[in-house]
Amino acid sequence: MQTSAKNRSFTQLIEFQIEPHQQPALVLALSAQTEHMARHLRGFLSASIQASDDGRRVLNYLQWQTREAGEAAFQAFENGEQDFWQLIRVHQAKSVTFGSFQVLHSLERSHDNALHCSLVGER
């Protein structure tokens, strides 16, 4: 069964390359911004903020119900109290890489230790 592209969930990956001493503050700032988006923006599904062991990278993973919800969230992030570009400057990011993806397949373990697979559809 095919699902239209409009009904697929949408993932944004944002990777920051920074100096190790900047990592804790960037993680804290992204955590606050992500919690704010989760509370106030429609379509939020999940998020994680991951830090590399060497301290030089931070990955912000955001998942939304639709592409439109993800794009609206990024616009809100850009125009927020601490806008996205200010966040980059304050934490002296050397580079920022953006990625957007349609979710086609997911696998997760439930509280009862069962694996649940979801095939969203083919392109």
TrEMBL record:
This protein's record includes keyword Oxidoreductase: yes
Residues of the ABM domain: 10-75
Keywords: Monooxygenase, Oxidoreductase
Residue ranges the record marks as coiled coil: none
InterPro entries: ABM_dom (IPR007138), Dimeric_a/b-barrel (IPR011008)
GO molecular function: monooxygenase activity
Protein name, as recorded: Antibiotic biosynthesis monooxygenase
Organism classification: Bacteria, Pseudomonadati, Pseudomonadota, Gammaproteobacteria, Pseudomonadales
